[in-house]
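How a chain folds remains the central question behind the approach discussed here. The record that follows shows the chain in one-letter code together with its fold in token form:
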Amino acid sequence: MLGQAEHNKDTEKKILLLLSNSQSSEKGFRMLVQTYQERLYWHIRQMVESHDDTDEVLQNTFIKIYKGIKNFRGEAKLYTWLYRIATNECLTFLKKKQRHKVVALDNEESGLVNTLKAENYFEGDQAMLLLRKALETLPEKQKQVFVLRYFDELSYKDISAMLDVSVGGLKASYHHAVKKIEAFVKDNVS
């Protein structure tokens, strides 16, 4: 029986082999989408406000992947490359949205928190809602590192390859994020 890491490696090899052949590249891309769509969806969902926004970013991510797959050199794991594209698409989307966003000064609650309360797709308990609120207080870089490490369970090495940041810098960002989240939770638990 193959372990999960071996299975992932074999799946990546098969996808890359299919993509490298012009006659099977379409099949390879479909397999890539089927294999990584859900993981990328939830990675993106941690960073954007709604299901619709997540779908938009995910679609843009797969367009970028489709256009750029020929340039994948295999220097990193395939999923690391995919996550990097997804993360960059999230950041681009958030920057664009921020430029167009009109923020009411008297509204103290985060848009994400309000969206999560009202959205049918969110079925989390109070602890998860509190964690979401805490995440919204973090600087973007710390939030990104926390999401990749905590929710996506990626290694510092993989995150480093994705974000082009040193492992030491990532560990510091993650540590600061955890401390801020702990303080937020402590201050907001009734």
About this structure: The two ends are 48 Å apart (CA to CA). The chain has two domains: 1-101, 125-190.
